[in-house]
Amino acid sequence: MKHIPYNLYFLFFILSFVIISCKDKSSHKVSESNKKEVVKSKFARNYPDFDPQIFRKYLKTHIVEDSIAAPFYQENEFSAIWVHDTLDTKNLYTYIDILEQVEKHGLTSDYFSVSRIKSITDSIDSGAYSNYPDTLYSKIYEVERLSTASLIKYATGMKYGFVNPHKLFGKKLYDITLLSADSAFYTSLYSEIKINPIDVATLSHPTDSIYLLLQKEYEILKRGEATDIKKITSGSTTFKLGDKSKYISDIAERLIITGEYTPNTETNDSLHSILDETLLDAINTFRRKNSYLEEKEVGKLTIDALNQPISYYTNKIRANMERYRWKRAKPKENKHIEVNVASFMLEATQSDSLPLISRVCVGSVRNKTPLLESNISYLNLNPIWNVPKSIAQNEVAVLQKKDPTYIKRHNMRLFKGGKEIDTESIDWKTVNPAKFPYFIKQDPGYGNSLGLIKFMFNNAHSVYLHDTPSKAAFGRKIRAISHGCVRVQKPFELAFFCTSPSTDLYKDQLLFSVKKEPITIEGKKLLKEDRLKKISDIINIKQDKKISLFIDYYTVFTYQNDSMLYYADDVYGYDDLILRELSI
Q1: Average of pLDDT values for 88-103?
Q2: How many domains does the chain have?
């Protein structure tokens, strides 16, 4: 066999290279910017006649119709974000993936038009409009506009919330000032979108500890949402410690699902049918988490709560994720009082101190307590109750007609034109409560509806915090019973929190001022010697010792220094209103 000369090998190599190079040129183009050969994108192969300048003119003409996206493009000189020489499918699919995971924020992907964005992106990417250039420009415009508008909505909502509570509830019910997106925010946002839209989406997520705790709980519950919770059908039966029943076994199995009860596998506790101390502790943990009172028995109220589906809790978390996305404009002071209307609880906190936690009674569903912000301005000992006109007409006058001694028995006095009127001088049979012309005051004392102390703060709703002679109401599960003001179970502990007495003697003086017994040996000695002094009925809070106050509404919440999530009934139906807005 003859050997092929070396120069023929070399010639063969050169010819092969030329042939391959010619073949590959069909899938390359020359970049105008650097004259280097680059591989054509899939988009460029599908749409070789696409002209970015024509698209820019199309965008400029049509974007004015979108009130959300238009300001961005006007500031960005109508430069596209998702379309350059080609459609940026990589970024679009990354963004779509982010939107498809928005469920972990308690939102639905369709709230951000993700189905439409994905559908158009898929159709363009598949070359569906290769023979329809006019349709191509309109579809690319739609995906550009929808993606940018949804990104602005996404980033703004994650920062400040998607629902406007002022519009949803009105100032009469929601009077808390919130931070909102302003021109500085949008200027910064537009600049960041121009640089990297994906970073804008991923870095916009809330990072507050309570929000992250809600997310964690939500993901756990969502995994168990499809779990078939066995309904406990014990009717009105009440179970006591030591009782044995198949329904108690059902209770134990239910508490395993949400983690309050961990069975002892060695003793087969999962089939526990006796209400012992361990199971009762688990039941009371469940009750605490759901803002129920702890008890030594299990009745219908607790059974009904145990029968709630998992979706009951996931919906609460969704609504409260939105609440925690709202940002209050007013800062908390070192001393802070938070009233949670939904849980009927008050928490007073200050740095380096244990919180004061007290039950409260709030406005009924008919007379809702307004949600508001303020500072405590002063404390009023031995308050006089100026009975509101609506209560005077609808309640006092009606009861007085039935019992002409009612006003006097309740330590009330009647006034007209600034002068006191003797109730016995009026023929109550002829009085029309709807046209009741009198003003009523209730004098200080233990029977006064405001109790012995009230806490005053500026607000447009004429509400305040106060003591009450009706102590039994604090033992109720549902404590939405007032005309709108907030009744406090621990008014004097709250008074001491507000005044920060430097000595126990001041506490004794405050108690003595409302005819209560002193608590210290020194105070009791001074009282016996008739040397214990009263303090003024008005205790002003100094400006340099501000005490911030928020009356708000959370159906999922935490307490200071406590990582447990607590749930409350949606007594005013506000969760449903928020969830409805988030589904639009």
Answers
A1: 96
A2: 4
